[in-house]
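C-alpha cells as discussed.
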C-alpha cells in the first residue's frame, strides 16, 4: 500500500492515542490496545487508496481524514476544538461479479465532544464499528496510591548529577557554530523577509510571528504553504487587517482577533478555520468586548488585559466561554465586598483559562479563570490588593531599567539581536544583563555579532540563536 501524507497523519495519531488515553482515563494496557485496534479498523475502511477508482469519493475521504486527524490531535493537546462535520465513504460489495463496481455508502459524522475517547467512539459508531468501553471509575484510595507512586519515581532522579559548565566554556565551544548556522541561513532569511513583507503589505497585517525554537526552514515552509492558498483565501484574510498572523502550535482564531496556524496541521484544517472562524471574527470580538465590559463593571473600573510577560494567548472559543462563565458567576456574588465597596481602578485582571488557581503574576496582575471557585477568586483579590500594587510598581521600575540595560548590552557587545524568555522575572533579567556588562572584557570578543537569548538553560537553536541561563557563572566548577 502506498503511504500518503494522510496515511502518515492517521497512523501517527493511532500511535500516540494509547499514551494519551492511558494518562487521561487511567486505562489498562488491554484497553489501550483496544483503542489502537479500533482506530485501525476505521482506517482500513476509509483509506483513500482504497478508492482509486472513485476520484471524487477518494478526495472527500482524504480531506475528511485530515480534518479528523487535526481535531483528535487538538484534543490530544487538551485544546478547545470547534465542532466539525465530515463525510466518509465506505464500500459495500457489488451485487454482481467483477468488473461490477462496489456500492459506495456516505457516512456523515459530527464531532462536538471535548473528550478524546468519546470522539473516537463517535467515529467508530457512525461506521458501525465496535466501540471502546469507557473504563470503570477507580476508588479514591486507588487514585492516591497511583499519585504517590508517581511522586516516588521522581525521587530516583539525582539532580546533583546535572552537568555544570561555565559561560566561557559554553560560548567558546558554541559561538562559532552559531555564526556558521546564521551565515548558512542568511540567504533563506532574506527570502523569508521578502515573503513576510509581501504578505503583510497584501493583507495589511500588524505582524507575522513564529516561535524562536523553530528552524528557519520550518517557518519558510509555512510561508510558502500560505502563499499557495493566498488567492483562495484573499477575501477572508483581509479581515485580519491591523492584526497578527502567528505560526504556532495550534490552528484557531485567537482571543484578540489574530489568527494562529499550526505547522503540524494540514492546510485543509487551515482552510476550515480561515473560512469559518475567521469569517465570523467580528462577532466573536463583539461578544468578547461585551462580556469583558460586564466584568469590568463588576470590579468598578479594573483593566482586563493579557499579562505582558505571558506568552499564552488562547483561542477565541475558549476565552469567550471563560468570560461567559465568569460573568454569570460574578453576577451571583454581587453581595461580596469585592463588588460592593471597593474600587479596582489601576488594577489589572488577566483571564487565563490555563491557570491552575487564583494568583498574582510577576507583573502584579490578578490571574484567574472560570474554573476557579468564585468566592476563592474574590477573597484572593481582596486579600492581595496591596501586594498586587507593590508588585506592579516594582515591575514597572524593573521594566524601565531592563529596557535600558538590554539596549546598552546590544550596543556594547555589538549583538545582531538580543532576546529574553518572557517567563523569567524582570529583576533576574536585569541582574543577568548587569553581570554581562560587568564582565565585558572577558566576553566581548566571544559574543560580538551573535544573536543572544537570555533563557533558563544553555542552548543553540536551529536558527543560530545562542542561549545562556540568566544565572550563568563565569568561574563555575565544571563537571563535564
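Sequence:
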Amino acid at each position: 500500500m502506498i503511504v500518503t501524507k494522510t496515511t502518515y497523519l492517521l497512523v501517527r495519531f493511532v500511535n500516540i492515542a494509547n499514551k494519551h488515553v492511558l494518562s487521561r482515563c487511567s486505562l489498562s494496557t488491554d484497553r489501550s490496545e483496544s483503542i489502537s485496534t479500533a482506530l485501525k479498523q476505521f482506517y482500513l475502511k476509509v483509506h483513500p487508496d482504497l478508492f482509486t477508482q472513485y476520484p471524487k469519493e477518494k478526495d472527500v475521504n482524504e480531506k475528511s481524514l485530515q480534518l479528523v486527524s487535526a481535531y483528535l490531535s487538538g484534543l490530544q493537546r487538551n485544546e478547545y476544538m470547534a465542532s466539525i462535520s465530515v463525510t466518509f465513504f465506505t464500500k459495500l460489495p457489488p451485487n454482481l461479479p467483477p468488473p461490477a463496481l462496489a456500492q459506495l455508502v456516505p457516512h456523515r459524522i459530527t464531532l462536538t465532544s471535548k473528550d478524546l475517547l468519546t470522539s473516537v467512539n463517535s467515529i467508530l459508531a457512525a461506521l458501525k464499528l465496535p466501540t471502546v468501553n469507557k473504563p470503570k471509575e477507580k476508588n479514591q484510595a486507588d487514585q492516591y496510591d497511583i499519585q504517590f507512586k508517581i511522586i516516588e519515581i521522581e525521587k530516583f532522579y539525582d539532580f546533583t548529577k546535572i552537568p555544570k559548565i561555565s559561560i566561557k566554556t559554553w560560548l567558546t565551544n558554541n559561538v562559532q557554530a552559531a555564526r556558521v548556522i546564521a551565515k548558512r541561513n542568511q540567504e533563506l532569511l532574506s527570502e523569508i523577509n521578502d515573503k513576510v513583507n509581501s504578505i503583510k503589505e497584501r493583507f495589511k497585517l500588524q505582524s507575522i510571528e513564529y516561535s524562536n525554537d523553530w528552524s528557519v526552514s520550518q517557518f519558510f515552509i509555512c510561508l510558502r504553504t500560505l502563499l499557495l492558498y493566498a488567492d483562495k483565501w484573499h477575501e477572508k484574510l483581509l479581515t485580519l487587517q491591523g492584526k497578527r498572523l502567528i505560526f504556532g502550535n495550534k490552528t484557531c482564531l485567537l482571543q484578540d482577533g489574530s489568527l494562529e496556524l499550526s505547522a503540524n496541521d494540514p492546510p485543509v484544517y487551515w482552510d476550515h478555520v480561515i473560512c469559518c472562524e475567521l469569517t465570523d471574527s467580528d462577532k466573536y470580538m463583539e461578544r468578547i468586548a461585551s462580556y469583558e465590559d460586564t466584568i469590568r463593571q463588576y470590579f468598578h473600573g479594573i483593566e482586563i488585559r493579557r499579562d505582558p510577560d505571558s506568552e499564552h494567548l488562547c483561542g477565541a472559543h475558549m476565552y469567550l466561554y471563560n468570560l461567559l462563565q465568569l460573568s454569570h458567576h460574578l453576577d451571583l456574588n454581587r453581595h461580596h465586598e469585592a463588588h460592593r465597596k471597593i474600587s479596582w481602578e489601576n488594577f489589572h485582571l488577566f483571564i487565563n483559562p490555563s491557570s491552575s488557581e487564583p494568583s498574582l503574576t510577576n507583573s502584579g496582575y490578578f490571574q484567574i479563570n472560570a474554573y476557579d471557585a468564585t468566592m476563592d477568586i474574590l477573597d484572593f483579590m481582596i486579600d492581595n490588593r496591596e501586594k498586587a500594587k507593590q508588585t506592579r510598581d516594582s515591575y514597572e521600575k524593573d521594566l524601565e531599567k531592563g529596557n535600558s540595560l538590554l539596549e546598552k548590552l546590544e550596543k556594547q557587545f555589538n549583538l545582531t539581536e538580543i532576546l529574553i524568555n518572557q517567563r523569567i522575572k524582570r529583576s533576574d533579567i536585569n541582574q543577568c544583563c548587569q553581570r554581562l556588562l560587568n564582565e565585558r572584557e572577558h566576553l566581548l570578543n566571544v559574543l560580538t555579532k551573535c544573536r543572544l537569548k537570555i533563557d533558563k538553560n544553555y542552548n543553540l537553536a536551529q536558527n543560530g540563536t545562542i542561549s545562556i541561563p540568566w544565572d550563568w557563572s563565569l568561574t563555575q566548577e565544571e563537571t563535564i
